[in-house]
Amino acid sequence: MNKNTLFEEDLKEDAVIDVARAMMVAARTAPKAKGVDNLRIAFVNTIGKEEIANEMKNMVERGEAASFFLRDAQNLINSDGLVLIGTSIHPMRLDNCGLCGFANCEEKEKFPFAPCAFNTGDLGIAVGSAVSIAADKRVDNRVMFSVGMGARKLALLGSDVKIIHGIVLSIKGKNIFFDRK
Known about the structure:
The protein has a single domain, classed as NADH Oxidase (3-Layer(aba) Sandwich), CATH 3.40.109. The protein has a four-stranded antiparallel sheet with strand order 1-2-4-3, sandwiched between helices. The protein is globular, with a radius of gyration of 18 Å. By secondary structure, the protein is of the alpha+beta class. Helix 1 (8-29) packs antiparallel against helix 5 (117-136), helix 2 (46-61) runs antiparallel to helix 3 and helix 2 packs across helix 6 (145-153). It has six helices and four strands. The protein has helices spanning 8-29, 46-61, 68-78, 105-108, 117-136, 145-153, and strands at residues 39-44, 81-88, 140-144, 161-170. Helix content is 45%, strand content 16%. It starts with 7 loop residues before the first helix and ends in an 11-residue tail after the last strand.
């Protein structure tokens, strides 16, 4: 082999991190209700992916999650990277909109785990912005709430972050998310 030749396999780890950085920037700069940013965003390394996957398996064993969490945990293990995007829950007090299902923000605050529609909307826009970067860079990806549930159980984004989505990234010859069982 030529010392002056760099193979894709040797650069894949750096490529995934570069794409993840761009995804996190896109998520951070996505529009947010009233300009208030309640998001927490992180890249998870190999050890962290294994920790989340093990927690997902444990959740199934404890009866806290459906069996497809096992499939998603295996996808996570087989992946090349993971971006977590989560939100804390803070009512935005937009004229007591009622979109959360409660009459007003004061009523909603009696139920701190019930999401504010604007927090979840902001999270969805941020996730969409992030996956568009992955798609533009031709990195296979899958948004998995199951991975987010494992990360939440481990409080990886902090105990105040109540809703998390995991964006699992893969750079392989075949999309690992295609033939899932």
